Amino acid sequence: MTEKAEKWRLLEDWRRLVPAAGGLAVDDLLAYSISDFGSPPILHLYTFEPAAIVGKYQDIHAALKLDRCRERGVAFNRRSTGGGTVIMGPDVVALGFGISLRDKRIGSGVGGVFRVMSGVLVRALERLGVSASFRPKNDLEVAGKKLAGLSASAEVGDCVLFHASILVDFDVNLMLDIMNTPAQKIYDKGYSCFSERLTTIRKETHRDVTMDEAIHAIRSSFEESFGIRFVQSELTPPEREKAADLEKGRYCDEHWIFSHRHPPSNMGEALVKTPGGLLQVYLSTAGHAIDQVIITGDFFSTTEQLNRLESALKWTLAEPDRILQAIREVWEPDLIYGVSPEALRDAIVAAKTVCDKAQGPPYSDRAPHGRA
Amino acid sequence: MELEGYVLPDELYYHEEHSWARIEKDGTVTVGMNDFFQKEAGDIVFVDMPEVDEEVEQGEVCGKIQSRKWIGKLCTPLSGEIFEINEELEDEVTLVNTDPYGAGWIFKMKAANLEEEKANLYHGESVGPWISEEIAKAEEEKAKSS
Question: Would the N or C end of chain B have less CB density within 10 A of its end CB?
């Protein structure tokens, strides 16, 4: 790359563990830096102190066992981008990226951001010897197992904040101990259930990939993909002031962390007999949409196929026709041997019925709150 | 007007971020998100609405709309004071998808500078070229993704 290449800013903070509130505040600052302070695009790469981070419109009480978080010294907070809970820590790369949507290199609209950014991260993983691909709706996977989660939010002006969490290594037991999952009742099977659905860079490469290597691969992939060069950067005094405001006014504020601005969350399960065997569906819903779904049973299928189905169903409206449509989008003959798409739909609808019956207080009983 | 499957009623005024404004007979304004937005966003999971009595300026982000893992902006098409929000969306947010110009409205406002600000919105003949460009960009992106 020539010296004339366009220069973007790089904020690296991974040689220490960053407290959740501080890290998230700097991520939010990125869009302001571009919109209000005239900065070029900024990449923020860092590692968190152990922390469970929920999506902006998630019910934190439904998502996390807050007592267990406190007992284990795991911080909890709420990010400003969407999606579900992520467990961050020393072996997970946290990535925040701010860019103007007017930049043609980021593609057009929602689809463009995810297409371009997943491409950059897939190429970063290739550098480490991991062959990953984008799994709609918002994950990177290796053979059906999730390795990274992506989310984004349209922030100030025409800027977008893109978030990713990339697993270099991961503690499934910690996740099961602090997170509520729809498969809570199969906790004894939980470890295998989730370890079959997740993978890490170290697992895929069969070697002890360092954070330094992972960060370097991501940085290089950005430079090559966008045709730019990064300049190591620090926050300017006005940026530091803005980040401190965001940290105090948002990420250290209980109104933000325990925000009631979210659709009601519920969990349910269903057990259905089919010609292919027993079909068990564990479901959590966010309002009318599917938040998480876990499909298990004594039928014949592969983890990869099941994970693909589960991903296709996430954030789908939990209505019979929409569920069937999502299933058919990824369905292949005998995907679950002896089970039809309609039987699977019916099992999910049955689990949804249980969710509906478990509904908590009416939405209108929400506590007062401020919006950020 | 219907263009390539997207419905954009002629009587409405449209902001470039895809909110619409209907000027009611009593001079108040009803606001929602247009058909292009709801089709591109897909299933809406949550609308983070503004507060009643909030004063907003044209183009200001006064709320957020979550679909999948994306959180999009709700930009007010006009300046003024919000006097009602659609509480039905708290229980039936899918109305933004199923009935974007009817029961899926988001808030009502008293416009502060209606005549002057209308000129900044798409209306009548200007809607076609603008939405065609938006459709072309979306199609181009879908082609790259496939």
Answer: C
